[in-house]
Write a structure and sequence with these properties.
two-stranded antiparallel ribbon; 8 strands; alpha+beta
Amino acid sequence: MGPALGDAAPHLGRPGLSDPCSRVPFVMDIEVRTRVPDVPAVLVRLADDRTTARELISRAVEEQIRELRADTGRCRRALDRQYLSDEDLRAQAAAGVIKMPRPAPPEPGIAEEVARAHRAFARGTFVIFVGGHQVHGLDEEVVVRLGEPVVFLRLVALAGG
């Protein structure tokens, strides 16, 4: 869920421009979908086409938690699965089994989960591509354009590699 990881597609855009040099405020919705079980697709609303990876991740996580709060057990399972680090996987694999963490407090806090997603991005647990270009830093500015995909991609180490 960075958010959930999957594809994001921009929807709707700015109204017509009478002066091509002026910037007219608009709203853009980015649909964030995932292939991770229990993580819902959500819409992230942007007030501008310029944002940062940090903001994209924050908005996606916030919306996913809002959607998942209706079922806190499902929410916790989805978030734990989403951010299980490679170190967690290696340590558990060495013990012979990979398990999801024990249930945590019933309702995850948005600020804590956003910070957790930011840390996961910073350590390379997932990457973001905007318009086919990889975003490398949390504070890197990105421009989201209609028709160009925004992809959150979860990276998983291959066994023996």
